Amino acid sequence: MSHNVLLEIGLEEMPANVITQSRIQLMERVEKFLTENRLSFGQVKSYSTPRRLAVLIHDVAEKQEDQEVTAKGPAKKIALDNEGNWSKAAQGFVRGQGLTPENIYFKELKGVEYVHVDKFIPGKSAMDILPQLSEVVTSMTFPVSMHWADHSLKYIRPIHWIAAMADEKVIPFKVLDVETSNTSRGHRFLGEDVVFETALDYEAALSEQFVVADNEKRTALIVSQINALAEKHQWTVPLDEELLEEITNIVEYPTAFYGTFDESYLAIPNEVLMTSMKDHQRYFYVMNQEKDILPYFISVRNGNADHIENVAKGNEKVLVARLDDAQFFFEEDKKLSIDACLEKLKSVTFHEKIGSLYEKMQRTGLFAEVIGKQIGLTEQEMTDLKRAADIYKFDLVTNMVDEFPELQGIMGEKYALLFGETPAVAQAIREHYQPISSEGALPTSRVGAVLAVADKLDSVMSLFAAGVVPTGSNDPFGLRRQAYGMIRIVVDKQWSFPVRTIWANISSQLHEKPELMLSGYAETQADALSFIKGRIRQLLTSLQLNYGVVDAALGSTQDDILQIIEIAQVLEAESQLETFKSTIEAVQRAINLAEKASDETSIETDKFETASEKNLYDAVLSVKERYADFSVRERYAALSNLAPSIHEFFEENMVMAEDETVRNNRLSMLREIAQFALSFADLDKLVIK
Fold this sequence. Notes:
By secondary structure, the protein is an alpha+beta fold. It is 50% helix and 14% strand. The chain has five domains: 3-63 and 126-207, Alpha-Beta Plaits; 73-121, no CATH class; 215-333, no CATH class; 347-542, Hypothetical protein af1432, CATH 1.10.3210; 561-685, no CATH class. It contains 26 helices and 17 strands. Strand 16 (349-351) and strand 17 form a beta hairpin. Helix 13 crosses helix 16 (423-431), helix 18 crosses helix 20 (521-542) and helix 23 crosses helix 25. The longest helix is centred in the middle third of the chain and has 26 residues, at 308-333.
């Protein structure tokens, strides 16, 4: 007969941002525990609230599966003495297995006979195994942990109770000073302690004490309550998924309600209103059918509807206080000028070894000019780019951004338009922060995209020059994210972006403006450019390309980001074709032998001894004349077309001929092929099966 098993860890209120992952972690650890202990099981349901993490496992086997195993012992020559009797080694081995020498038989492995025994291991009762769930509880890990009392265990929050049951029985174990039981706790203010008659009573019994333990049901309840309010008042309420998850994780018994604020606050930019409500107060903002923000908000109480009007009024007071601040900051900021803000930036340090934010903007402007010319911006776009680069950080010293840092760039666009800048310049100021997360939205305008790339490239190159290099999880300036964002923008815009060439042009411009040149650029540029190339690996890996293909593309002498990515995609596609193996084997062989070639030798056609040498030379010459103009796919096709001639060459000629002149001539021809190949990809990195 199978068991239904409950494990609930009762805690002080946990931070909302760790609850979902902790719930999933507990479920996965319990599943792993049962699997490793050979206890079969059925459906596993996880639960979480701010005060609990729980799993309910259906149909857990009554006992472990029996095992029949074969154990290997010492070699026959060790197991038997000179008289054919069992040695102490053999006797000790079978004794350790709980058997006798009569159970021994010999089995040959790699030409040597070894002692073997077969033994039957009966499965233990589930009730003998389940108390070890204590190890699951103590093995949990969290982003932030704490000690409490005089305990050595670190946990997300102090453990107050543990409910552990198999059907109607308590699974006995102890964690610190907390012993398991069949009891839990209801809602902190509305409920009472709960006694479970059986494990399957878990969800229903908690519900009677104002705890909706199922996080999915809590979410659905919140959504239905918000939708009911929206329908009643003919509102549109955007349901932000992150906010919805956060609210789900801070309540046990949700009740949605709405509040209001004075219409005069609607003069504040929408982004400020949304941030005040969503990020600071965990409110949903309300819109009409035309998507205009209305002077209402929706919040969710952790409790029932009793005295909900008083709760709404309290929340209104809190929000109005924040909106008063925002309104004041907005009015004060309108009295500023961009020039005054830029002057302030001269005294704001970006990094002590790099200089001020104002100096960073100047360097970024130089970077942007080089990149803008590289990707072919129009004259008007270059004008807009220069203006945007001159001012794009000005909003950092405004009152609004000081109070709401998450609005940097957004308020820059708002204020730029307010102060008379063109829409293109204002848009670029906002877009230069994008993407703000690894897979976030990208700039849509070309000017904004160039400014974003320039700003990120300056951050990487300058911080590397200052010795601020990401190590392990330590990346305080987010350089990995910035470099990856730069790659994504280039790919999205399909720009030719030879990063070493672009950096050489930037470096040349910096030498003409020594006040912007950093002393560490020269010695760190190789590492910084390699770091950027490493972010290409991240992108290619996300496309689920073969690791060998990724290594080959990144090993290319090519430094155009777009072409490296296309090389990987071409290799991945071609690797599915029958001709791929023959092509790569031929070129790899040529590359390997070409390493023996001297740079001082050249191909002399009068030294050819066979027709295959002449044929290969003609084929190489034909490719060489056009190779620079080939697309990525055409370059691979050229190498593929060379493969038959390379195979014929190797079949008919001894490359390492005794005659040094002949040998050098053949190696020189292979060196030409290797140069073509390596400019395409490091094909030696490919594993051909």
